[in-house]
Design a protein that fits this description.
single chain, about 300 residues, 5-stranded mixed beta sheet, 9 helices, disordered N terminus
């Protein structure tokens, strides 16, 4: 019995010793995960590029995440001709405000003191996407549309890809913060904070991309070019004689405009021509007087020579 009791006690002590050894080993391993930068890299894979690549891409099921709405960026370009230049610009600005949009860029040129010509305006307008069709219809009625272009870019897959990369980095950031709370020395803290800084920078970069795409998706871009003209270009199909008549009329118009420009140029420059004519007349008179005096002196010298010879 004594031998049996001794044997049982020996087995119990061996089991207890093994358990304590395993517990100590596990605690040591937990502390070892943050003991150096190399071990941290090996355990948690700190490469921010690799962390970003853990997002969903078009190769691993990105298209499957596209559900109801798609992310579309719409761009429209319109060219107008009008005789009512000021009225068109006013209506354009008013309608933009009414629909909740804003003018991003505007340029108006022409009709200066030094150079008189028809005017030209260029606008870049941002309009809420759900109001784009209404805005285009209104603008098309303001003048004669000579050109219209529209493009749609589908950024759904790119948007989801960027979003998934951002979420992957945020998950990695949470793991780093948990690890930071368990850090036991300054070296571990500095290593983890350095990795946190890199990940935060990447997250901000992806957030900036998402905000840019959101703005382009929510507000469509409309480029409007307005030309002030004296004759509006006629649209639609024309017959043979109608086209001849139109071109003949255009030729007469060009000739008339040329004669009109010439007359206006001459009459407009009349004050300058008068001044220039007066200056030229004075110069001619002075030159004639000088030449006349020289001729008189020459004749006097000739007469004196003849008298001396006699």
């Amino acid at each position: 019995m004594k031998k049996l009791a001794v044997f049982l006690m020996t087995v119990m002590l061996a089991v207890m010793t093994a358990g304590c050894g395993n517990s100590s080993k596990m605690a040591a391993e937990d502390r070892a995960t943050v003991s150096s930068g190399a071990e941290l890299d090996s355990e948690y894979n700190w490469d921010t590029d690799e962390a970003a690549d853990t997002g969903v891409t078009s190769e691993n099921g990105l298209e499957a995440q596209v559900e109801n709405g798609r992310k579309l960026i719409r761009t429209v370009s319109l060219s107008l001709e009008t005789k009512e230049f000021d009225s068109v610009l006013t209506n354009l600005s008013t309608k933009t405000t009414e629909l909740g949009g804003y003018i991003e860029l505007s340029t108006v040129s022409g009709n200066s003191y030094a150079h008189h010509s028809t005017r030209y305006a260029s606008y870049v307008i941002r309009i809420p996407s759900d109001k784009l069709n209404e805005f285009v219809e209104v603008v098309s009625e303001l003048g004669n549309v000579t050109q219209k272009n529209e493009s749609v870019e589908d950024v759904t897959l790119r948007y989801i890809d960027v979003e998934s990369h951002k979420k992957a980095l945020e998950t990695e950031q949470e793991r780093l913060l948990e690890l930071l709370s368990k850090a036991e020395n300054m070296e571990e803290i500095l290593t983890i904070e350095s990795k946190l800084s890199d990940i935060r920078y990447e997250i901000e970069n992806y957030e900036s991309q998402l905000k840019t795409m959101d703005n382009q998706i929510d507000y469509s871009t409309v480029s409007v070019y307005v030309d002030e003209v004296e004759r509006v270009t006629e649209t639609g199909e024309k017959g043979f004689f109608e086209e001849i008549k139109e071109r003949f009329g255009n030729s007469l118009y060009v000739v008339a405009r040329g004669i009109r420009g010439l007359v206006i140029g001459i009459l407009g420059s009349l004050p300058i021509l008068i001044v220039c004519g007066g200056v030229i007349a004075v110069v001619v008179i002075v030159v004639r007087k000088i030449l006349k005096k020289r001729n008189v002196r020459k004749e006097d010298r000739t007469q004196n020579n003849e008298i001396e010879k006699q």
